[in-house]
Predict the 3D structure of the following.
Amino acid sequence: MLKRASLQALRHLRPKGGHGWPGGSFWSEGTQTGRNGFPFGESPPPPGQARKWESWELPTYTALGTGALMAFFIANGPDNTLQAWARPIAEKELAEEDEIFEAYAADSAAQEAKAAALRAVGKHPDRYYDAVLMRNEFEVLKAKAAAS
């Protein structure tokens, strides 16, 4: 009885969809014979009528155009790198260091005092010149402020 019921079920199966397509189902062979020379095999509309857009075309073209514009503006936009952000700050600090260096270079007594202090601890003044400049920026600024 089970065998007979399953055979009857197979005989009376109703196909599920795809019958509205020309030539059978969606997956059946197409009805076009050969190429017609138009993009995507689409036939042109009758003369005097405009081509009707498919439902996917407007969102797709909009998304592609927006993506192209975004790519253009990102590629040609302002420089947002870390170096571009830090450049003005670094230039300001370098200008301040140049002022400090000029004040230190102009004060030969301060240079001799630092050189003597370095020699006293057994270090060569030229080798530690940058270290001396960095450690004594405050003293130079203080001396500069006192002089003015």
The mean pLDDT is 78. Residues 74 and 80 are 10 Å apart (CA to CA). The longest helix spans residues 82-106. DSSP finds six helices and no strands in the chain.
